[in-house]
Amino acid sequence: MRKSGDFEYDDLQGLVRFAYGKLPETCFMLLNIADASAAKQWLSNAPISNAVSTDPLPKTALHIAFTVAGLRQLGLTDAVIESFPDEFIVGMSGDESRSRRLGDVDENAPTRWQWGGDSDNLPHVLLLLYAEKNAINNWRKTVEDSFFSTAFTLLKELPTTDFRNAEPFGFADGISQPLIDWARQQSTDAHDRDSYSNLLAIGEIVLGYPNEYSQYNPRPLFNPKTEPAAMVLPNAEDQPALKDFGRNGCYLVLRQLDQDVPGFWQFADQASDHDSDKRQQLAEVMVGRHLDGSPLVAKSKIDIPGIDSNDANNLFTYNDDPQGLKCPISAHVRRANPRTGEMTPGHSNWLTRFLKILGFCNKRPDDDLVASSRFHRLLRRGRSYGPVLSPDAALKPDAPVAERGLQFICLVANISRQFEFVQNAWVMNSKFGGIQLERDPLLGHRRQLYDGDSTNHFNRSDPTGLTQKICALPQFITVRGGGYFFMPGLRAIKYLAALPNHGSDKVS
Ligand code: HEM
After folding, report:
1. Do 157 and 271 fall within a single domain?
2. What would the mean pLDDT of 150-159 be, rounded to a whole number?
3. Crossing angle of helices 490-497/36-45, nearest 10°?
């Protein structure tokens, strides 16, 4: 029996632990299963990378994740599928109300997506290949030669480009990530946690472990007496008589997001009267960080658990900037992770926080509650795509138009409480942290509210308290595809590979 601090890295797909910064080349493939027996045969020996740390790290990596349609195709029964949460079963584009909540309306609507938007272009499998420089073609060939033509058909290859730790607008990316508490050292008791921590319970990202509520997320569990094939799976920690299909697995959310790089920089230029310093400042307050990734707010005076004291780019909260004079409350990074948004100064202990949660201590209209950020963290693993265009080149009237953007990927244990909440309540919401009639300046669509009020504004105040209202903000980012995937642990992949075939497994 393993100790709780002795994490099963050999059963976890490596992408959960590593971002593969040293493997800059990638090939992301959306596949359909053409022959389920051949796919299972390949899965039984597939060289999927685990999370065991080796020195040096491997020169290539391979990861796999499945949509609900893919799991069905491999033979998971409806009864098992039903124990997955609804949002995974229905899918990212599967219902209109979800699309509205995610902001997938107008230009972003699933009917316009290149993949994932309707039944003709829904993938079964996502295959993620990583390699060192100039090595991706060989790695791809090795993987494809082993199975491709019989087991799978290629639905779509997603473009990716090595942008060298930046995203296409030119901002440093991949800076702020939660640190997973693999050794389970931090308490999840609310009374012990009245300040911001970047250390996150394993169960917030990986299934089969306690989350920040000290609870286990729902996932398929098997009784080995009635399902002997499940013996290959680990025991469920919370119900040891059962076998846990979810343990060491997580959900992978993928969204292909096109970025209008010329549109972004030309708008910033125009709104700054063509002054290059002001242009850069405006772009930076929309993002919430400087171009080089440094924060807009001052370094935190107190230690933040889970952040190294030398990591100057992450050692901050918004405690000293409650009104958003340095980093606007609406800035992308502040919406996406408000850090101490729910613990503004004056609410430093659990009692005052509790009273605030009940609404008793609000003194100012903008002193409203932002839900506790620790329940809504995302582990981001995206990669950029398209030709690189520098901010200066993007300003030229003839700047080349091209498909470029971000293959946004995040890993979570609960799609609805984490990705969907962040996307809906924080990023797309026209009311956030006391701000109204604005959405995320980078990600937001600009649709009017039902009463006709427009939401295409962005307010920034400077330290003197002067507010500049930017109007007629265009939409800079458009959704081109997306899906919810399950990325199983390695023993769960063995279980899938051993599922019985039904008659003819060839998919017509
Ligand atoms: C093309 C689309 C996007 C662009 C250009 C973009 C850009 C950025 C940049 C430049 C940063 C700061 C660097 C860093 O901390 O790594 C950042 C941080 C972040 N973004 Fe995005 N992002 C995009 C989409 C999204 C989406 C769809 C979400 C979630 C719904 C999201 C959530 C986050 C989070 C959680 C952070 C870290 C915030 C923090 O902890 O301080 N981003 N993004």
Report:
1. no
2. 96
3. 140
